[in-house]
Specification:
single chain, alpha/beta
Length: about 400
């Protein structure tokens, strides 16, 4: 169900009064010396530390260091849309309830053309200060593709003051994904001939789909492990025998579901045994116009903790702008998984004579140090670095 509303102008004051410095909120640290502070002088003995390095950034990494997904979404949105002029403001913003990761992952498709709407998160029917501040700073201009709406409210997300809103409803993750797909197809003027099917129950295996949907406009629909819900069947039928890409191994999306999906389109499974390996497999995969195909250096990469599915939705704009690139997962603990190290070694940039003539990788990290540690950040930074092709393999190379 889709409804449109235009609230009273007076309510805009609530958003304006809640305007905050979102980059500080995004750091999730407060005034403790860890958040980046501009304008530090050499006479301050803490200048190097308070500028935020190496947590905020290293030579090959940049961190959006929120303590939660709400702050991360606000930080990413303003990193992508500075909001300082009409050309640096988004046409629309998508609001998603922080309790609904499926809605966030599916709604990442609105970051693609023609809507180009980053995601901000609400706390049920309330706007957290970081979200309200980001929304007021972004001042979306209104998207012609969705009837001039400035805000797309997904499910039970909060209302957005005076901004012109369209509400996309659904009684389940499957129904919400179906309605999101319908709105995206209407905005684009056609339905995509490619669809991602992911698990509604295993978040870590579905997370990488958000980055691709944001870049490509290919919708995400959900299934249960052993059955295809009616809403998903209806949505797939509307695409008229599309190419269906199932994301996840058989213990996440069963072979029975794959067999049933073949009645609705051609089916290809992309999977890894673990959530980390699944994201790597999707980053490597390419089939014609579908897939990242990142098997060589010269790319952007986005790193998210596998236990934080809404960080994948929050980070989706980074895969659809700037350096573009797939989403990769960091597992629990402070040790980089061997498959991830090996993948980064496989795509590490190299040069023969002059690094200036080479290509480069860059990593965005989503979350604070409790989410992705500084040790992990340092390891990622080293694996992003361009190296002489004649150099011996780094000591981090895992045993074969």
């Amino acid at each position: 169900m889709v409804t449109a509303t235009t609230p009273r102008r007076g309510a805009v004051l609530a958003c304006v009064l809640l305007l905050v410095t979102v980059l500080v909120a995004a750091c999730g640290k407060g005034d403790d010396g860890q958040s980046p502070k501009i304008g530090q002088k050499g006479g301050d003995e803490a200048a190097a530390r308070t500028l935020g390095f190496p947590v905020f950034a290293t030579k090959n990494t940049t961190r959006v260091g929120g303590a939660d997904s709400v702050a991360n979404a606000a930080g990413v949105a303003q990193a992508v849309y500075a909001g300082q002029s009409s050309t640096t403001r988004p046409a629309a913003v998508t609001l998603v309830d922080r309790k609904n990761w499926q809605a966030g992952v599916a709604a990442a498709v609105f970051m693609s053309t023609p809507v180009r709407a980053p995601i901000l998160l609400t706390d049920g029917d309330e706007l957290p200060p970081a979200t309200a501040g980001a929304l007021a700073a972004l001042r979306p201009t209104g998207s012609k593709a969705v009837g001039g709406a400035q805000v797309l409210r997904i499910g039970g997300a909060a209302k957005a003051g005076s901004f012109k809103s369209t509400t996309i409803g659904g009684s389940s993750p499957y129904a919400l994904a179906q309605q999101i797909d319908r709105v995206q197809s209407a905005a684009a003027g056609r339905s995509s001939d490619r669809v991602i099917v992911a698990s509604a129950d295993s978040a870590a295996y579905a997370m990488p789909a958000a980055a691709w949907a944001a870049k490509s406009g290919d919708p995400i629909l959900f299934v249960a492990r052993d059955n295809i819900p009616r809403e998903t069947r209806v949505a797939l039928n509307a695409h008229r025998q599309p190419k269906i890409y199932v994301l996840g191994p058989p213990d996440v999306v069963s072979e029975k579901v794959v067999r049933d999906l073949r009645r609705l389109g051609t089916v290809t499974r992309v999977s890894g045994r673990t959530a980390v390996g699944n994201a790597i497999a999707f980053a490597r995969f390419i089939d014609g116009r579908f897939g990242w195909g990142v098997v060589d250096p010269g790319h952007g990469l986005v790193f998210v903790a596998e236990r934080k599915p809404l960080d994948a939705a929050a980070a989706a704009p980074l895969s659809a702008t700037g350096k573009y690139g797939p989403l990769l997962l960091v597992g629990p603990g402070n040790e980089m998984p061997a498959p991830l190290i090996q993948y980064l070694l496989d795509i590490q940039p190299g040069y023969e004579r002059d690094p200036v003539r080479g290509v480069y990788n860059h990593a965005w990290l989503i979350g604070d140090e409790s989410t992705i540690s500084v040790a992990e950040q340092s390891r990622i930074d080293a694996l992003m670095e361009i190296v002489p092709v004649t150099a011996s393999a780094p000591p981090d190379r895992p045993a074969s």
